[in-house]
Structures are given as structure tokens and as C-alpha cells.
Write a structure and sequence with these properties.
By secondary structure, the protein is α+β, with helices and mostly antiparallel strands. It is about 40% helix and about 15% strand. The radius of gyration is 27 Å and the shape is elongated. About 40% of the residues are buried.
Length: about 400
């Protein structure tokens, strides 16, 4: 859905509205790729094929009758416009095929309109052949995979995953060119990567990194759910996403071989997202999760952000903003002033990873927040918040730190 769920009277406040809006944009686009993309691409290719068929038919008639009429030029022009409209309806606003198709059609139609009044059949046949080939070239599977790719994704969803991007190069280029995002819509059994594509035509194949396997596969999803403990709340959940921010492996050089390995070797920083029908349901699931763990105040996850009242450990809410159980819900005293304050949440149920892990499960420390109808969690580790720095990695460029 493009619009946020409506709030009913007496429901919880729309906590962290900016983060909710940014998350909604990411989730909506990710679900589109998981569900509607195949049909949209098929519609696009059908639209191109129909236009090509019209051009081919007109060309055959012109050849047979040894004459070209203005009405025939109008027919191929209309076929191109129809293809552009159908393609746009299928793929926009995720991609912009309409202007590309119109640009190709218009240049051929302009030539045909010049030579049709002269009844220059040879020149008209030549231009119709060019138009047919030009249109057919944008309807191939290879063209679609390159220009409207979902593996990797490199359209507005990629930009939304990195929002807000630096406004100008070269910093903007460093962010988009240096970040790789793993994306899995677990609720739709879909996963892919999002990053700037490598120039496979301009460099040797051996220099291009090779990543084996699926992005954030089911085994890693299971591992993260275990690490999150009570946070995954499947009741009434509409969508579940796993996102991981990693450094995009650079091209290989004479001194450094190109990366070759599995996604987990990229050491991406994960984010877990759960969507519920409305903010009230999300608030109830947050309360359940908080009751099964414990919190120590709130803090932003943005490594550059500061909040008034933060102490050396990043604890930004030592003001008693909590429920009787010791855990604050997002309905309590939440505002959108400054960067989003996340619950510093910990629990003891996860499998241990430190000293004595065979005997003791250990504690998992991380960050949890509700934003509108979403629950988001990140930064979970066996290391306490105050005992680790620089854990954000490429997450510093993620939408969750920018709102």
C-alpha cells in the first residue's frame, strides 16, 4: 500500500513518523519486486512485441504495394505510443521505460513522415526495418535483465535503502558505489541483492567479484531470529524482511584478487523488519517482546547522531520513561524531535557465542523500535552496547539511521 494505515480513535500515536515513512517506502518496493515484478516485465515485453508486429505488418504492406501512405506512418507511431503507455503502466514508478520507448519511436517516425509524402518506398522500407530492429532490441530478456534488473536491484529501491543519500558527488558516488545490500522478503519467499552493477563489458571477468548462493538465505534468517529472541512476533504479521548492509566488494587488481565467497562472508550488518496491519497491532507486539526481555533506556543507532542527555554508553533516556515492568513502550513519551531513539533491548534466550557458550546461553544486546505499523531491530550481538564501537559498518548509510 502507498498510504499508511489509518489510525483509529484512541489508538497509539504514530510513533517515529519519519522512520515509518521511510520504512514503508522500502517495504512497499521490496514487496513489489517479490510479487508484481514478473507480471510487470511480461506485460512490458508483450507491449514491445505487439509494436514490433505492427511495424512488421506495415512494412510487408508497403513492400507489397510499392507505396507508403501517411496513414501507415500514423499506424506505426500509434503502435509505439501504445507500447510506451503499456510499459509505463506496468513498470513505473519503479522504472521509466516510457521515455526510452518514445525516444526510439519518435526518431524513426520523423524520418518516415519526411519520406512518405515523396512515396520514397526504398527509404521507407529501410527506416521501417530500423524501427523494427530498434524496438525488438528493447524487448529481449537480456535488455530487461540489464535495464530493469531485480538481481541486483539498482533503481529507486536501492536509493530508498540508502536514504537520505548525500546530495552531491563524489560522496554520493562513494555511498552508492561502495555499498551492497542483501534483501530478503521472507513472507514472500524472495531474496536478492541491491547494489551498483559491475561493468561486465568493460573489465575482465576474473576481476569481477563472485558471490555464491542466495541473499540472506533461510538458514541465516533462522540464525537471526534466534539471536533476536522474543522480537519476532508472527501473530498478525503482514510482512517480514531481512536486510543486511555490507561493503560492495571492489574489482580485483593485480595486487588483490576479486572477492569470491558466500554472502555471510561479506559481514553485513542486519536489520529485521516486521510489518503489521496497523500501529495498534505493532504496539501490542512490541509490548509482548519488551515483556520477555529488558531495556536500558533509549539511544539512536546513527553513529554520527547525538541526543541531549546521552551518557558515555549512548543511553539517551535515563528519565524514567518506562512501564511498571521496567520497559518503555513506544506509546510512552515518543516524539519525532531529533534522530530516532531506539530501545536498548537485551534478552537471555539466544544461543551463546562467548566464553562458556556450551554451558551458558549468554545475553544478546541490540536495538528495537516501533515506527508506525513496523517493528525494526538491529545491532544484536553478544557484546554489550558500551563494549563495542563502530559496529554500524555500512548500516551508517541505511535508511534506519537517516530518519
Amino acid at each position: 500500500p502507498d498510504d499508511p494505515p489509518e489510525q483509529t480513535d484512541g489508538g497509539p500515536p504514530d510513533a517515529n513518523a519519519a522512520l515509518a515513512t521511510a520504512t514503508r517506502a522500502v517495504v512497499d518496493d521490496a514487496v513489489w519486486f517479490a510479487t508484481e515484478y514478473p507480471a510487470a516485465v511480461a506485460t512490458y515485453r508483450d507491449a514491445i512485441a505487439d509494436a514490433v508486429a505492427t511495424v512488421r505488418s506495415v512494412r510487408a504492406t508497403v513492400d507489397e504495394e510499392a507505396a507508403i501512405a501517411t496513414e501507415q506512418v500514423d499506424a506505426v507511431a500509434a503502435a509505439g505510443e501504445t507500447a510506451a503507455d503499456r510499459a509505463a503502466a506496468a513498470l513505473e514508478p519503479h522504472f521509466s521505460p516510457g521515455p526510452r520507448i518514445r525516444a526510439r519511436v519518435d526518431r524513426h517516425v520523423a524520418v518516415l513522415r519526411e519520406f512518405a509524402p515523396r512515396n520514397d518506398v526504398d527509404r521507407a522500407l529501410e527506416e521501417l526495418d530500423r524501427m523494427r530492429r530498434d524496438l525488438a532490441s528493447v524487448g529481449t530478456a537480456i535488455y530487461v535483465e540489464e535495464e530493469f534488473s531485480r538481481d541486483p536491484i539498482y533503481n529507486r529501491l536501492f536509493r530508498r535503502l540508502l536514504a537520505p543519500l548525500p546530495p552531491e558527488d563524489p560522496e554520493r558516488g562513494r555511498v552508492t558505489g561502495g555499498t551492497l545490500v542483501e534483501l530478503a522478503v521472507a513472507s514472500r519467499d524472495f531474496s536478492t541483492y541491491a547494489h551498483r552493477p559491475y561493468d561486465r563489458d568493460g573489465v575482465d571477468r576474473d576481476r569481477i567479484p563472485r558471490i555464491y548462493g542466495d541473499a540472506f538465505d533461510s538458514e541465516r534468517q533462522r540464525e537471526l531470529r534466534a539471536r533476536l529472541g522474543p522480537i519476532p512476533q508472527p501473530e498478525d504479521r503482514v510482512e517480514e524482511l531481512f536486510v543486511a548492509y555490507a561493503r560492495r566488494p571492489p574489482l580485483g587488481t593485480r595486487r588483490r584478487e576479486a572477492f569470491e565467497g558466500w554472502p555471510r562472508e561479506l559481514d553485513g550488518v542486519p536489520v529485521h523488519v516486521q510489518r503489521y496491519p496497523d500501529a495498534e497491532t505493532a504496539e501490542a507486539r512490541l509490548s509482548t517482546a519488551l515483556d520477555e526481555g529488558a531495556t536500558e533506556g533509549r539511544a539512536p543507532v546513527d553513529p554520527e547522531a547525538t541526543l541531549a542527555g546521552s551518557d558515555f554508553s549512548g543511553n539517551a533516556s535515563a528519565d524514567g520513561n518506562a512501564t511498571e515492568s521496567g520497559n518503555a513502550s513506544d506509546a510512552d513519551g515518543e516524539t519525532d524531535d531529533g534522530p530516532t531513539a531506539w530501545h536498548r533491548f537485551y534478552h537471555r534466550e539466544a544461543e551463546g557465542e562467548r566464553y562458556g557458550f556450551d554451558e551458558h546461553a549468554g545475553v544478546q544486546y541490540g536495538y528495537l523500535v516501533r515506527a508506525g505499523e513496523f517493528l525494526l531491530a538491529t545491532g544484536f550481538s553478544g557484546d554489550a552496547w558500551e563494549e563495542r564501537t563502530g559496529w554500524h559498518g555500512r548500516l551508517r548509510h541505511g535508511w534506519v539511521t537517516g530518519a
